[in-house]
Amino acid sequence: MEWFPSLIWLVVGLLAAVYFYYKRKYSYWKDRGVPYIEPSIPLGNIPWNRSGNFKEVFEKLYKVRNESPFVGGYFFSQPVVIATDLDLIKNVLVKDFSTFHARGEYSNEKHDPISVNLVSLDGPKWKLLRMKLSPTFTSGKMKFMFPTIVEVSERFNQALRETLKEDSEIDVKEMLARFTTDVIGTCAFGLECNSLKNPNNEFRKHGRLALDTSGINSIKRTIMRIPKLAALLGLRVFSKEMNDFYLGIVRQTIEYREKNNIRRNDFVDLLIDLKNNDTLDEENKVKLERLTMEQTGAQAFVFFIAGFETSSTVMMYALYELARNPEIQEKLRNEINTVQEKHEGRLTYEAIKDMVYLDQVVNESLRKYSPSLALRRIAQEDYKVPNTNLVIEKGTPVMIPNYEIHHDERYYPNPEKFDPDRFRPEVWKARHAMTFLSFGDGPRNCIGLRFGRMQSRVGLAMLVKNYRFEVSKKTPIPIEFSRHSRVLSVDDMHLKIVKI
């Protein structure tokens, strides 16, 4: 047992070394005079897996801001910038985008091809793919897809009528997710998913799995915030089963359309064009490489995942607020009916564009319940913050807490009040451009924002025209946000629905 005291001293020495290592690391922001909150050894104070107290942590960090343009946080021992000054945020997202173009997402091209998509790529690969895909999301292309969305909304209306014969109090979260699953499944994969009739179909099942951050997925996603470690461990972002499912669906759909010369003016057709034809970078006058089948499948996958959950969540919160504010609901219903009458009673692309108050309701829902709590960028070189002596060092993550900005009383008085008039054109124009960031901003903003807005507005127009939404005994007041979702959501949302 002579070795035992030596072992004790070795353990004590190692613990002391770890302690002083972290104390030194955690002095980073204090030494630079940046406001911060004390981190905890060894995790720091930012939970990157999105399933923990992510919202609560950013609320605490945002509150300690002062005249400094940003607040300091830590992911394990890595310093993180929490940008709070709107001009700095504009620099990061727009003006100095070349320094902050990367998101630092992890992907695994060899074993997990659907993870190599527009959201996860950085650098030249991202730039080339963005240039290829941007023309597919123009207003003209959206107009082509519009009839498909209306067709699904009509099936949605029929399915909801049947459901209400059995129960008037239903979970609108699940109901809306099935609607957007069918819309995106049709537009991104050219398939009739029928999740409105069969909520347990393959598309709905895999959609749930892709967004799950509970259990082992939570640990994996934390590790993926350290890309080099994730690559060393060979982690998959998505399972082999999920890769096989989505890539198989895309391959079968494309082969069938090409063999039978079928065109549907949807996202699949646009991807087929990118796969088969050279595209031109108009700015630099150079040809861009065609998409491979794997790249095509990855873009269809991310369009599906990003589109169905965010749009259904926005509609869910809108219906929740309309149920709690019947006067706003009635005002919106009057606009929908009036505009449709002008368009011969039809829900057309032009009619949706004329529904100004509907757009305000969607924007206010996005403000109050922004699906993404924060935007993320990585400094590609040392960056001196204008009008300060502060430097954001190369490799430092920059987080933009858009949820906190959307609830800042300086920009939105009485922020917990649901008030669509905040987004009247003249009121919106008077605010700083960076006070509304639900779709991001700059060259890396959400490429599908037009589609998302269109899908949400069509769904809400159909619902509010035909049904009255009321609070029920099961309605969560106040809302308790889920800790197992990658977007700001709830576990369920029951409302009472009355056919008009």
From TrEMBL:
GO terms for cellular component: endoplasmic reticulum membrane. It comes from Hermetia illucens. Its main location: endoplasmic reticulum. It is a peripheral membrane protein. This is Cytochrome P450. May be involved in the metabolism of insect hormones and in the breakdown of synthetic insecticides. PANTHER family: CYP9F3-RELATED (PTHR24292:SF54), CYTOCHROME P450 (PTHR24292). Heme binds at residue 446.
